[in-house]
Specification:
CATH topology of the largest domain: Rossmann fold
Keywords: Mitochondrion, Protein biosynthesis, Transferase, Transit peptide
Helix content: 25-40%
Catalytic activity: L-methionyl-tRNA(fMet) + (6R)-10-formyltetrahydrofolate = N-formyl-L-methionyl-tRNA(fMet) + (6S)-5,6,7,8-tetrahydrofolate + H(+)
Family: Belongs to the Fmt family.
Mean pLDDT: 90
Number of strands: 15
Low-confidence stretches: 1-36
Strand content: 15-25%
Order of helices and strands: EEHEHEHEHEHEHEEHHHEEEEEEH
Subcellular location: Mitochondrion
CATH class of the largest domain: Alpha Beta
CATH architecture of the largest domain: 3-Layer(aba) Sandwich
Protein name: Methionyl-tRNA formyltransferase, mitochondrial
């Protein structure tokens, strides 16, 4: 056979044509790559974040960038005040480039492959999203579509969920938390776990899942799936009024879950003879030999365990008050409050009131 011929599938093809075809195929791949404007891996990332939850993801991205394997560049967009100081301080320590929000599109055009948003708290305009050839992805602290919104961790605990997790999703303009799911990972929630404890757990999980998403990034983005239309719930920004206890309506689980959800933000609030007092530590409590005549808000002292307890409404139950503060006095135990304020009152006046 002529040395310039090559047999393929029953056809004789000139080797120089294969070379030309090879170049054509290679050229097409490069053209496609250039068309999408992305040159990775390794990937160039602009990170948008604002609080300690987002710092964990930024730490992991920065650590991976140091290896120059799947990430080559990480710059940061954050706010100049409030919680943004957490991200800013870390970025300064790592000598990352920092930009203030809002950011001009001229800073982004052609310099980054993808935007990463973690606990940023701002709606990203479409013109910013379009600056990134691969779009933008978000680390969200829930199993979407459950708990869309600003406070998924608080509402997970507030509602007594026993399962939570992290979602990596695509960012869409104009609405929060509706994008396609790139990756998800779930975890259990302990019945006594606080929102702060869950936050630390999910921030670590979110950072790890984010790094995992960058392995075969284009494939992961291509096969992202739409969120289900079923099971959608919302977690709006937390209002301080959530800390006010209504003893008539809330059962013991509701009160305890409220404490677990808010203890890192505010104490629970109740009324003692017209005075607003702060409850700094509350526990679910199982009473033995219960007085069935008790009404919601009534106080009882368990002498055997030396615990101050409150009768709850709704489905009932009791909570114990471990630590509280009354205006003009130091923070005290439930026992000290009973001895100093409750014991001297007639039994029908030993109660907390609802607003």
């Amino acid at each position: 056979m002529n040395s310039n011929l090559f047999k393929l599938g029953g056809f004789k093809i000139r080797k120089n044509l294969l070379v030309v075809l090879g170049k054509s195929i290679s050229h097409s791949a490069v053209s496609l790559k250039n068309k999408c404007g992305s040159k990775g891996p390794p990937w160039r990332i602009m990170f948008f974040g604002n609080d300690d939850f987002s710092v964990k993801s930024l730490q992991m991205l920065t650590s991976k960038m140091r290896t120059q394997t799947i990430i080559s560049k990480v710059d940061v967009v954050t706010t100049s005040t409030g919680n943004g100081i957490n991200v800013r301080n870390f970025a300064k320590e790592e000598k990352l480039d920092i930009y203030d929000w809002p950011i001009n599109t001229t800073i982004l055009d052609g310099k980054y492959d993808i935007g990463v948003v973690v606990s940023f708290g701002r709606l990203i305009p479409e013109k910013i999203i379009k600056c990134f050839p691969l779009g933008m992805i978000n680390v969200h602290a829930s199993l979407l579509p459950r708990w869309r919104g600003a406070a998924p961790i608080v509402y997970t605990i507030l509602n007594g969920d026993l399962t939570s997790g992290v979602t990596i999703m695509k960012i869409h303009p104009r609405r929060f938390d509706i994008g396609e799911i790139v990756k998800q990972h779930s975890c259990s929630v302990d019945k006594d776990e606080t929102a702060d404890e869950l936050k630390k757990k999910l921030s670590n999980m979110g950072g790890s899942l984010l790094i995992d998403s960058f392995k075969e990034l284009k494939r992961n983005l291509r096969y992202a799936i739409p969120q289900s239309e079923n099971g959608i719930t919302y977690a709006p920004k937390v209002d301080k009024n959530l800390s006010i206890i209504n003893w008539d309506l809330m059962d013991s689980n509701s009160v305890y879950n409220r404490y677990r959800a808010l203890c890192g933000l505010w104490p629970l609030i109740t009324i003692w003879h017209g005075t607003s007092i702060k409850l700094f530590k509350v526990c679910n409590y199982h009473m033995i030999n219960i007085d069935t005549q008790l009404n919601p808000g009534d106080l009882m002292y368990d002498k055997r365990k030396q615990k101050l307890t409150v009768k709850c409404g709704g489905k009932g139950g009791f909570v114990s008050i471990e630590k509280l503060k009354i205006p003009g006095h130091k923070t005290m135990s439930g026992k000290d409050f009973f001895n100093g304020f409750v014991y001297m009152k007639p039994k029908n006046e030993r109660k907390f009131d609802s607003r």
